[in-house]
Amino acid sequence: MQTNLHGRDLIGDLDFTKEEVETVLDVAFDLKRKRALNEPTPYLRDKVLAMLFFFSSTRTRGSFEAGMAHLGGHAAFIESTTTQIKHGDTSTEIGEIYGRYFDGIAIRHCDWALGNQYINEVAKASRVPVLNMQCDIYHPFQCLADLMTIMEKKGRDLRKKKIVVSWAYAASYLKPISVPQSLILQMPRFGMDVTLSYPKEFPLMPEIEAAAAEQAKKFGTKFDIVHDMDEGFKDADVVYAKSWGPLLTTTDAAEGKRLQDKYKNWMTDAKKMKLAKEDAIFMHPLPADRDVEVTNEVMDGPQSVVFDEAENRMHAQNAVMALTMG
Ligand code: CP
User: Fold this and answer.
1) CATH of 18-139+313-325, one of 3.90.1200.10, 3.40.50.850, 3.40.50.1370, 3.40.50.720
2) Is the pTM of this model over 0.85?
3) How far, in Å, is the centroid of ligand 1 from the Cα of 83?
4) Which atom of ligand 1 is nearest to the CA of 134?
5) What distance in angstroms lies between residue 310's CA and the mean position of ligand 1's atoms?
């Protein structure tokens, strides 16, 4: 067990080794059990986390804020438009200054071609751990919660289990590509066969797809890309179907919407779930476009694990914070 995570950043999914992720999961399961027993977990007493948001959130804000309180510390919610960032505070200054006030800096910055770079710049200047609450490339805490949830439902040995990471249609907005990218990077390390499914205009970053293939080779699993939702769902143990924008094809919002609207039939419904294994689980990080991305019948049905997934955000994050900020 690798336990020396003190002071470490978590920005990309592969920043922690597989053994370190296993440590995170062990701690997360322990924290979840302790919370169920109402046992105190004051591992970060008197510590303060800065939560700097450049993008809206329901789960991420709530779970980090509640999580810090459960660990005996405090989280400061800082909405970027209320700061002096637009008047000139640079990423380096944020890292340098907030690193002196706080014991950890968590950032959500999803702007395409900006977010990940910004978080890395803050991390370079910061003396405390920097945690990625979602950027344009990665959503590592969502992925840790997803892994934890899959293990709860399917067991800790995930070898030969198939996960389909599928694009789905949404009408609300062009969603970031960070969730599918994190999933295809992390899941092969835990033995899962990954099928990535999307219409041809919706690829992920080529270097991330290549890195996922490399992880699959390293860990002896499968990594396939298909362009048909039904084919992707076939015999899956885990169905993870969500929308993302065609950012590698166009960054023009109107053109992106036009491309998205070509694929309104890419919706998860009971018929599509029947293509997966009988005991397959349905996952989604939320928010979902109900009856557009996925039917209410599936979202609220017996195969859906979306609320356990949302809960596990907090336990997985608490584990990382306790290990890195303690
Ligand atoms: N899944 C997730 O990150 O949710 P929020 O956008 O509400 O934080």
Assistant:
1) 3.40.50.1370
2) yes
3) 22
4) 3
5) 9
